[in-house]
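Running log. JK asked me to keep both predictions on one page so they can be read side by side. First protein, sequence followed by its tokens:
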Amino acid sequence: MLKSLSTSLILRGLLALVVGGLALAWPGVTVLALVVMFGVFAFMSAGMQALQASTSRSAGAVVGHLLLGLVDLAAGVLALAWPGVTALVLVLVVASWAIVTGALEITAAFRSGEEAGTRAMFMVGGLVSAAFGVVLFARPGTGAISLALVFGLFNLISGSSMLVRGVELRWTHAGLHTLFSPTKTKAVA
């Protein structure tokens, strides 16, 4: 079991390193890939809604699923027809998320019963998150490329971590295997 887990970590780490390197080398292509993935997801969601409509028993549910399917289909077509606008919208969604998250973290810093270190971490994290969101709103075009670069850096860091953990686990497995393997004893005549 440890060997299969270590192999999985090593392979996932290597894949993350490759994806991170590609994202850093071609951030524009990375943004386009995210838009295409969103379009494909929207088409798949439209298909699932159509499937749910075909298995629904009431007319209201059928109409609801078909309408949602049409909305999903339209979102997929729009995403692939206008990838620039879609990338902009995705950046604005991330910017909104960052500002809301930052505000919630800053609010959490002022809850009663928190230690000073915890308060400081909430405050710093909230300020960084909110500032990130404001910067994305101010420069959404640059923000799309920045998101691709952050995505690449994240994959490089997490891939390196998984690779190291996988190798350490492989060494641990080898050490346990040699420690607990049966030794051959010679029969004394």
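And the second, directly underneath as requested:
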Amino acid sequence: MPLISFDRHSLILDATPTLIRSGAMHYFRLPHPDLWWDRLKKLKAAGYNTVDLYFSWDFHSKSPGEYDFTGVRDVKRLLDMVQDLGLYWIGRPGPYINAETTRGGLPGWLITQPDVILRNRIDGEYHASPQYMAFVAEWFNHILPFLKGRDNLLMIQVENEYSTLEMEPDYMQALIDIIRNHGIHSPTMHNDFYAAGLYADLVDIYAVDNYSVTAFDWNWRTFPDVFSVIDHLEANIREEFCPNRPLMMAELQAGWFAGWKSASYAKIKQALGRDHIAMVTRSFLGQGGTIFNHYKAIGGTNWDDIGATDAYTSYDFAAPISEEGLPTERLYEAKRINLFLSHFDITQTEPASLDFLPSSKTLYKIRRSSEAYWIFTRNLSPEPVTFQLSPHVSVETPPYHAAILPYHLPLNNGWVLEEINVEPLIQTTRLLVLPAEGQTTLLIQSPQPLTFEPTPGIQVTTLPENRYWIQLEKPLGDTQLLFLDGPQTRILFLGQDLVDRLWQTSSTTYLIGPDMAISPEEAYLSSPRNCWLLSHTGELTPLVSPEIAPLKLPVLKDWQWVSEPLPQEGFQPLSPKGADMDANGLYGGAAWYQYEYTGHKEVLALHAQHIWAVFLNGHCLISDHTFHVHPETTGPEDVVTLQLPTDLQNSTQPNHLTIFVESLGHHKGFHDDTRDPRGILSLALDGEEIARQGGIQPALAKGMVHGTTLFDLDMPDTVKAPMGLSLEMPIERVNITLNGVLIGKYWRSCNNQTLFYLPEGVLNLQGTNRLTLTCMNFLPPLTVENPLGNGYSKVELVPFAVLSKLSP
């Protein structure tokens, strides 16, 4: 295990100051271990040296006292993968994790324990709960042995975003004690959502959690204080809470989640662009921060019933690596930053000034290390802003752009990079790689005279004292490259598109051109393009671009439709504790209720969460929903009343009320709202409350129409083509099951997701797949003769992208 220590600047690993470039991945949102391996490799390929891992208590414990760490829950296998790839990791075992998971990762069975005070907190006030702590100790007894003894565990988080009104330390200290008693000696850290120093005195590393843009109906770029929390980290957080330890951002925004009835991912991605992650990350670094975790770096899927009410099926998060595992423009920007940070050391810096610099609103920060100055620029305006660094170098900051410019930096080849107007990418002892999407200019000094090979498009002016002024005559096109050869050193200039597609594949090799590259043997392109292997000495070797063959997918046909009748048997008596699903041991999914009464009734009053339908003697009276994205109340506004038709009621025989209710998850518990019930909350006939007088059973497919089809795939090894299922249906609710796994929930009224990722591993790429659509459309009723309702329907396989392997 590396010796982990820290000073006021950074973590120090085996005596080496190290800048931690972390990205969050939710293994429980990737429903096959092969996906873990794939995403971890891509995370490392993008220049991250650390992965941030939540461990979900709920995911591993579906019943009291039972814990599952096999298959898709195999934590040991996950952590072995992390170690095999040479990544560090940050462990976040909760017990509460938030993460837009149902109940914030607390098990369903836990919230029904009557004597348990969840998180030792009621309405923000601390209330010690020995019963809760006993269950927490049980969870830690199961999960912490997997975490213990891992040499690459950098730190372990205590709780998550926790606070009380009086900041009582008891709960946090008890968790720390349990962790230490398990023999885990890595530094502890806490994630403070409020940036108020909460529990900074208890943990080794204090961290802040900040999301600067969470609304997408306005242009965040026009708001001058959009990064206000980050912009005051050094002045407010460091001096008060971290004078002798590094600044850490436990969740540095790399996207945002999309929920039922909220902005779509298309809108979120468009709103954030690549400039948000570019500016927020460089702004944090400009504050002297050296530990950041992009949340999330890797998108995921709310398969089964993982998600809270905040998020629908996709948990893509507009992340740099998308839900389906594809690179995005935000990944290219994050990779660019990570590449710079892996080649240029800014771990040990202090605030500084350069008095000769003119005043400019784009001069964000200036920092000084023992070797050089670092000029941080940031332009939060719609116009480019220029200032003169010297008579030779002019710095232009484009709109909504940020950069880190070294000043008087000794390079690995013995030169001094006196001035430059772009953020460099790579340096070795014989290579310097620079972006050239703008007017690139640099000034270097050498211990001895240099002679450069004349190169069209590049001007080299010799100045006194072995100084050389190098100018690109004009910006390069997106796919252009240009190099300037000097003695023992090559300067390589790249256009914007090639900068995006520059990958470090080992300590001595790079690839230029692929859309995604793990190694020279595992690189993929979406279209024919020039590609090169680049050595650390600057040698460029052209590579053969593959043929991009069209992908032919099977048509989904030969559907077998089955209409299940309303359930008549199999109901269990409702619990005396309540009619809600939780009180009856159903912590997610859907349920059928049945009630019986005699005689004629006039008015039914129902309060149910979330999606529901009422049947009287087999006839559907109403189908609706009562859904609140944020913590809901159980007030009268959620009670629905309806007149019961006389002609549907039996005079001499019992009448049967059959009620369907589907839960879309619990709240994530950030506001102590985890226990808000789902299912039937109240039910009255003519004013008489009867909610607890009926029976309940899991819904499964009873009372619904479901269709199944088989389709075969034969995906070549040389092609990566993540698949989606596109639905265009007039049906209100559809659950999508692939090979026995619930991988999607379609809700037509929300109009937020019609394309569903079919995860590899669940999806058989070489063989037969079974797809089932469970249709919950009760008005108008569906039948096997008319399974898709009245109107146009389209169900088809769609590739998110088609990538072909590059020939090594």
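Observation for JK regarding the second prediction: The mean pLDDT is 95.
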